[in-house]
Amino acid sequence: MIKDWLKIPSQYQLQTLSIIKIDDTIIPVSVIGKGRPVILLHAYGMDAREFLPFILPLTGKYRFYLPHFRGFGEAKSIHLTQFDFVRQYADDINTVIEQICHDLKIESLPVAAISMGAQVMWGYFERFGMSRVSRYMNIDQSPAIHNQADWQGGLFGERQQEVFDIFHEVVDMTLPYANVDSFTHLPFTIKRQVTDIERLFSLLSVNRTRSKAIVQLLTHQNDHKLVFYNHSTWQHKMRCLQAYLKLEYDFRAVIEKVTIPVVNLVGGRSTLYDSKWQQEVTRMLPNATEIVLPRSGHAVPMDEPIAFYKVLKEFVGNER
């Protein structure tokens, strides 16, 4: 009787689906819920399971597929084989989408993606079109990373050069240690630089006071703790950062071809992607609606968790 009482209902049981690519690479996908399928794509440095607090109330009607990008979460031991990680992630997501559609015998399904995951979706649309995606929610992500003469909506906006210079310095410092097996074996100054840059990125991603306090708490590393800190994803993060700095990553040309319904969810106080330029993206899309959360920074789920849940619920509810 006790065992029956403690049994978790099937809709709340988290499973892992292993999707095998042609080269035998296994892409892990966390799956939860029952009902109509939805894909959610996570951000840089995020574990796909961090979506769980927002989707658990919806698992009675929807089955959520949460792919883990190479180097993060359940896929942290899976290495990139291409310098252009966005392209490789787009290839991986195409395999995931094709497998889900095949298994469920459906033509398409909705996708919501945040930050880096949304950047991957711009790359996906460019390479594979939109026939497999019925609706799309773009969460605070510009289609172009670098500022240009005709586009000032890139990463960090007006502060781009200042922040990129900091990133360049850290990436250059870590290059001689790219093959070091353990983070604990790095010189202390390198470890401090890497963790400080991660903290800076996280703090720039949030706006609300409570969010900043949480980031400060979670990312604080005193000297003693840092000496023994085993940072398993630092090399992968630096590699992605290096690609962001060197590659163009401009998908504006594909926007006018994305004719499916798009919800453009904008953090009104995002310091990563200026909201005015994000609203320009809405105007560029042929079939888009816009939702601006005026008090939110880039990390929308963290800054405005209730509002994010409501938007996500409406987005999946509009699927026919």
From TrEMBL:
One of its GO terms (molecular function) is hydrolase activity. Keywords: Hydrolase. Residues 37-305 form the AB hydrolase-1 domain. Pfam families: Abhydrolase_1. This is Alpha/beta hydrolase. It comes from Psychrobacter saeujeotis.
